[in-house]
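Write out a record, fold above all:
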Amino acid sequence: MLADPEYSRELALAGGWRAVLAVPLLREGKPVGALSVAKAEPTPFSDRQIQFADQAVIAIENVRLFEAEQARTRELSESLEQQTATSEVLQVISTSRGELEPVFDAMLANATRICEAKFSMLHLRDGDGLRSLESSPKSG
């Protein structure tokens, strides 16, 4: 580094670096980052050390794929939870024989669970205002 006229001599001396390796991290020919390493010895980096960058790109891609899969799994889980809640409310509706209270209770219980809330309340329009019908505290 000290012999390279394009590199800051002051920076090299301040960091105690004598050799630096900067390798672009490419995925499908497009840059996704860069890997820079520096060492105190003024010796070249080996081919094996340089090839580490390829492994880093693979690791970055694996993390990206894993995170995308985790996000998709969360979305599917939330969707299934909502469908289950809807099914539970529909089940109550089909067995309530016109009674609204069991339907409201099921809606509140599912809303509380799905939203991971401490409680839920149901309000109905009453003229120009709202009337609170139920409150469902979260048990546990």
Strands lie at 19-27, 30-39, 119-126, 129-137. The first strand starts at residue 19 and ends at 27.
